Each structure stands twice: as structure tokens, then as C-alpha cells.
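Supplementary Methods S3. Input chains for the assembly prediction are listed below.
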Amino acid sequence: MSTEGQSAESPNPSPLEDPAAPAVVQQGSEPLLAVSGLHVEFRTQEGVARVLNGVRYHVDAGETLAVLGESGSGKSVTANTVMGILEMPPAAITAGEIRFRGEDLLTASASRRREVRGEGIAMIFQDALSALNPVFTVGFQIEEQLRKRRGMSRKDARKRAIELLDLVRIPNAKGRVRQFPHEFSGGMRQRAMIAMSLALDPEVLIADEPTTALDVTVQAQIMDLLAEIQRERNMGMILITHDLGVVAEVADRIAVMYAGRIVEEADVHSIYRKPGHPYTRALMDSMPRLDQRGQELNTIKGLPPSLTAIPEGCPFHPRCPLAIDLCREKDPELLTIAEGRVSACHRSDELMRDE
Amino acid sequence: MSEPILQVRDLVKHFPVKRGVLFRRTIGQVKAVDGVSFDLNKGETLGVVGESGCGKSTLAQVLMRLEPATSGTAMFEGQDIFSLRGAALRKLRRDIQIVLQDPYTSLNPRMTVGDIVGEPFEIHPEVAPKGDRQAKVRELLDVVGLSPEHANRYPHQFSGGQRQRIGIARALALRPKVIICDEPVSALDVSIQAQVMNLLAELRREFSLSYVFIAHDLSVVRHLSDRVGVMYLGRMVEMGTEQQIYEHPTHPYTQALLSSVPVPDPSLRGQREIIRLTGDVPSPVSPPSGCRFRTRCWKARDLCATETPPLVDPGTSPVEGATWPGGDEGAAHPSACHFPEEKPKVVA
Ligand SMILES: Nc1ncnc2c1ncn2[C@@H]1O[C@H](COP(=O)(O)OP(=O)(O)OP(=O)(O)O)[C@@H](O)[C@H]1O
Ligand SMILES: Nc1ncnc2c1ncn2[C@@H]1O[C@H](COP(=O)(O)OP(=O)(O)O)[C@@H](O)[C@H]1O
Ligand code: SF4
Ligand code: SF4
Ligand SMILES: [Mg+2]
Ligand SMILES: [Mg+2]
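Predicted C-alpha cells for the full assembly:
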């Protein structure tokens, strides 16, 4: 149903020469999770906010897709739609498909969706404190799922909860299982939430800014933990973040979002070598770096657009240094620009050519 | 470089921990800032980095006299900030300003932007006579890159980056000499963060300001700072030029902190040596004896539990047998560790 995307000119991925570069397009087999043509609106007092405008991405088992974008670009709304936890109203899904192992979740029954949630796809959130219930112990919150969904006895569920807390390396899991979320430090709460999300052995884990609220040393611990768990369980992982550093360290592929759409998608190595979209390039240029005592930073002029009044043509054109007349008139399609890479820009060819 | 405008010595701020409903007893002290000393030179930016809860904001609040110090001194242009009263205190409140992290909560939602930026003139009418204020406000908005027409709008009509500019315009209103920036760009997205950082750098040049620049983002701090102090659990553990701290860190905590910062270059993946700290920061109510970092330090020895390592320059080490980094002049700077040494290539 999507008009954008690479379906028309699907590239032929050569056998992997570079072992570090993952396959970008899965041929033949269906991806584990695939979102396509997803449109979501929020109907608010100020009008209709077109929050998602044809989002598409996919993730395979054992792979990490990073979804990169500034706040308000639609990263969390996409994730919440996939999880089926979008508040409707005010939100409305106006088009799109979310296929999990080939099955469209948007047309699935409510009970089937509940089944997929947790067991098929699980999610961890930026703010662990508000995601955990303050009036129940951490252990109880993990055990509840195991008892309800897996029919475990109290005793078995407790045993498993301790194992899970152990797995995410919470020291003294036996004692901690009886504690309340506020008795945990920020990093420990994040670990507890990860433990909870793993309780039903999901095949896909969506991590929405899992370390944004944490300090760098704790962030490093949590990212290590996530990468290890993902590897061991061969999970697909969607890592939502705005941190270009975190992305460079863990992602296999990157999807860049702007104004509710994917503007570029590529494997991590080629996108850092040469961004294929002016927005991606601008993001990378505006970041202060640890190894530089910079002069003036490059900035992106202006602000992201209001989603109640997205500009005609390319939504990035008012801020884009490369904009031409065509950009103001025609919304660029997401097209293949190199093997396994797509970009939505009228001038991506030039961008890819010049040094 | 030049003379110090602000000299802080042995600054301590403890908050009492109270328990009980009817009879509130003090059961301990949060040692938020526990013996911090530094100089801020004229025209310089001193960066302060450290993890959440290490005392950065408390330090800022005490220097602004928003919280009373428990002990210690802070001299601004030769006068002790903490003993100023009356007219001298009013003058100090003009000379030192603060810009806060959260552009969403630090501005009064019911005031127009013009009123917010012009409010300091109400408190210090000597700076701008009534007739001049409107023009001054417009000028200030212009300086921070906002349109003077925005003066009649309310904060909620602005984005995060614009709100931060409003906060900066307000801080500039009284022509301060020192601005303390407490995480001024932490709540902003990269593209907007870059705009505000450039603005801060430009204003410093234009108005010869001195900044104390507090942030937990090490890249941001490096970008703006001339010198940097690293805080851990209420203490400064290492202090040096931006070059010394980032290229030649000698304190294990600084090294761990720097190596934890993800590097935006996927080709370096797996090639960097990353120092992974285990465990959490101990409670500031009962910090470890001796070196406060010892519970997470991979180099800790018995001495570290009994002797507090002072923040001193190499050569003045009171501890026999400690190996100070020698030779390379980049490495010679204060480090509060009994066994300071450089590690090759901490920053990729
Ligand atoms: N009013 C207060 N009463 C009691 N404890 C306080 C108070 N203000 C701060 N603290 C404590 O003092 C310590 C230092 O806090 P501070 O806000 O200075 O940290 P920070 O370095 O600014 O952290 P962040 O990076 O999270 O902003 C913390 O343990 C904090 O909980
Ligand atoms: N409940 C809601 N009502 C109205 N608008 C919303 C709601 N939730 C999110 N939005 C809007 O949707 C857009 C995308 O939000 P989000 O997905 O949270 O962005 P991010 O990329 O930062 O995760 C934003 O403009 C946001 O304001
Ligand atoms: S289509 Fe035009 S405006 Fe949009 S990103 Fe490309 S060059 Fe810029
Ligand atoms: S004094 Fe000891 S514990 Fe502290 S940083 Fe140095 S080696 Fe580590
Ligand atoms: Mg979000
Ligand atoms: Mg703070």
C-alpha cells in the first residue's frame, strides 16, 4: 500500500562482503516486524496535527534498528502505535500496516494484540519511574505478568522474577525483589524495567530513549546490557534515540525521522561516512564532539515545523541549505540512493556525489 | 591568564536530612558540596562536569546566594559574597546572574516575554530609567536572536531553544560580569543546542563575560570551556585546562567518565578501551571515607580508604611513593588521587 519505499526498484543485495555491514533488505523472507505507510493524526483544539505521515521501517531477528530524530519527530508515537498503546482519541490511525511475522496487527483482534504485546513485542520507556507502578514492589510487577500470562504459581513467578533481576545485574536480587521502585536508583529502575519487558521472552524489544535520563557511566552499563541480552536471545531491537553517539555504538541500521516521516535509512557505516539527506548531514554537523574544542558549531536554522501546518513540498525546505524551487512544490519520495540506502530528497544524488 | 574575578575556597553546603512527623529530628546531612575550591578568571569559561547529584546545581545556588553556605568563602572582585549586606548585596545581584536548565519551568507562564526580560529593571531601576526600558528589552531580545516583536507573547508560545534565549536575555539585562549557566542546553535537541551554544560563546566575547558553565555533557563542556573542573560526590576531583582534562586526564573518575561517552563513529566500534564503572554513586549522606571514588575505583588500595587525596598540583604530593605524571607538561595539573597517572588515549 505504500507508495514510497524501495518496492519498485528493490536492490539486489550482494552477498555480504563486509561482515560488519548487515543485510539492509531482506529478500524472500518476511521481516520480523515491518511498519509501512503509517499515518497517524492527533485531533486537537488547535486543529489536526499530522504526526505520522507514512512511516516505514522494519527490523529482523538479531538486528538493531536505531530510530533517530529530534523531539517531536514522531519516534514515540510510531513505537506506541506498534505496541497498540496509542491513546485513541485524540489519536487516529488513518492508514498503514504493522506486520509482525507477516500478520497485520492493525486489523488483528484486541485479544490477539494483547497476546502479541509482551510476548511478541515488548517496550521499555525513557522514564522508568513513571512506567513502574509506585505502589507495588518491583517483584510483584514482574510476577503479575508471569502469573496472568504464563499461569505460573506465586512461588515459580517469584523465582523467575529473581532470575530476571539477576539477569539485568541488579545486585542482591533476592532482597531487591521486595522493594518498591522509589527505593531503586535511576540506573537500577531502568534495569528493573528491562527485566520486566523480558519476562515474556519477546522477539522484538522497542527501547524508547532507554538511557536519555541517565548519566554516561550508567548509560554505558545499560547499553552493554541491552546489547548482550539482544545477542543472546537473537531479539530484534528498535532503539529510539536522539543521541548520535549511542547510535554509532550499537545500531546495525538507522532510520532518520523528520516531521513524522522517515527521511533516510541506511546501514550505520555508510550513513556516518556520508549522510544521504541534508537533514542527517546537518544533525551530524551540529553536534559538539568530545574530541574537538570546536570553533563555531554548525547549526540548523529555524525550528522543526508545527505538525498542524507542515510546509508544502519537502517538509525540511524552510531549514534546508540546499533547497531549490522544486523542494517547495513537490514532496520528495523515499527512493533508493545506493545499495540498501533510501533517502527522501530531490538532491540526494548530488549529495551522494560530492565530497 | 588574567586575574581571578571569583575565588571560591573550601565551600561546603550540607542539607539536613529530617525524619519524623511530630518531632522532626535531624538524622544526617546530605553533603551536597563538601569542600570545593576554584578560581574563575576574568573573561574565562570554567566548565564544571559530573554526574547527577554530585553537587553542581547546589554549587551554583550557593554562589548565587539562593542557598546559604554551610562554610567556606567566595570572593567576588575581592569581596566576600557571603557576608555582603544591603547596597553591596544589591550590586552583587547585578554582577552575577544565572541561566537555568529548564526553559519550561524557569519562566513565569503568566508574564509576557517583555515583562520577564525587563523584570530585573524593576528590581534595579538604577540600571534603566522607566522610559528606556522598552527600548532596552527590545535590544536584549535582538541580542539573543529573538524578534523584538516577540515582547508581547507568553513563554508557552515559544520553543525550548527560544525560551532558553529568553532566559539568557533576562540574565544579560543588568550587564553582569559573571553568568553561572546551570545546564543551559541540556533540555535542548542537538540542532537547537548548537544555536544556543554559539549564542553563549558570542555573548561572552561581545560583553567580556566570565562563565561558570555547568553541564553533564562532556562534549558540550569541552566546546565552551577554557578550564574544566570534574566533580564527584560534592568534591572537585580534577581541575585543569580543557586540553589537560580531555587529553591528559589523570584521575580515574575523569578517565572513566570520558571513556563512557559514546563516540559518533561506527568504525571505532569495539576498538576503544572503555572503562566500565560498576555500581552506583554512593549516597552523599554517608560518603566513603578517604577518597570518595574508592568504592568504584579499580586502582583503590588501603591508603585510599584512610587518607583523603587533596586536589593539588604534582610535586606537592604529601603521599610518599605516589607516582605523579611527569614530563609531559599537559599532564601537570591538580588531581585528587593518590596514584594519578595518564592512561593512553582515553578520548578516541
Ligand atoms: N534542598 C535540598 N535538600 C536536601 N538535599 C538536597 C537539596 N538540594 C540538593 N540536595 C541533594 O544534594 C546533592 C547534590 O544535588 P545537586 O542538585 O547539586 O546535584 P547536581 O550535580 O546538580 O545534579 P544534576 O546533574 O542531576 O542536576 C543531591 O544528593 C541532592 O539530592
Ligand atoms: N496525546 C497527544 N496529543 C496531541 N499531540 C500529541 C500527543 N502525543 C504526541 N503528540 C504529538 O505528536 C508529535 C510526535 O510526538 P512523539 O512521537 O512523542 O515525538 P518524539 O519523536 O519526540 O518521540 C509531537 O508533535 C507531539 O506533540
Ligand atoms: S528535497 Fe530539497 S529541501 Fe528537502 S532536503 Fe532535499 S534539498 Fe533540502
Ligand atoms: S585515591 Fe585511590 S581510590 Fe581514589 S581515585 Fe585515586 S586510586 Fe582511586
Ligand atoms: Mg519520545
Ligand atoms: Mg543540577
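Residues 190-206 of chain B form the longest helix (17 residues). Chain B has a mean pLDDT of 86.
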